[in-house]
Specification:
Elements: E1 5-9, H1 10-16, E2 19-24, E3 30-38, E4 41-46, E5 64-65, E6 68-70, E7 77-79, E8 97-98, E9 100-103, E10 106-109, E11 115-119
Antiparallel strand pairs: 1-10, 2-3, 2-11, 3-4, 4-8, 5-6, 6-7, 9-10
The protein binds FE2/S2 (inorganic) cluster.
């Protein structure tokens, strides 16, 4: 996969629960995205609840239960495979998808609208020397 950026492995996402990374759009503006398990595969979504722009993963891993990503602000849940929400404040919305491709357990960013910047949240690159929790940790239920 010559023109795609390798992100991590499916095993890493499955074991950690989620994987936070930062991308940049065509104007160089940063945004956060998360990889989450979806059945035996993975999906990627912009790390933002459509209701009030709450980060789903605030740097400690996204909260996921029974295949649903839980918004930490008002508790709406999103299908990790479809990105859709049918409950709570965010009912009727959908997370913004980020295109990724899996090949031999390796996950590649294939979304032409963004480029990979770094692993972790937007602030992570400035806090590399601090004791910032790893993006691969997660909250389980
Ligand atoms: S900000 Fe996510 S449900 Fe309100």
């Amino acid at each position: 996969m010559a023109d795609a950026t390798r992100l991590t492995t499916v095993d890493t996402v499955t074991e950690a629960g989620s994987w936070l990374f930062t991308v940049r759009d065509a104007y160089g503006e940063p945004d956060e995205a998360i990889l989450v398990p979806c059945d035996d595969d993975v999906e990627a979504w912009i790390n933002r609840c459509p209701h009030e722009a709450q980060r789903l993963d605030v740097g400690r891993g996204a909260a996921i239960r029974d295949g649903e990503i839980i918004c930490p602000r008002h508790g709406s849940t999103f299908d990790s495979c479809a990105g859709t929400c049918d409950n709570g404040e965010a009912e009727g919305t959908r997370l913004v998808p980020v295109d990724v491709t899996v090949e031999d357990d390796e996950i590649y960013l294939t979304d032409r609208a963004v480029t990979f910047d770094h692993e972790g949240g937007i602030e992570a690159s400035e806090d590399d020397d601090d004791d910032v929790p790893s993006s691969t940790s997660h909250i389980g239920f």
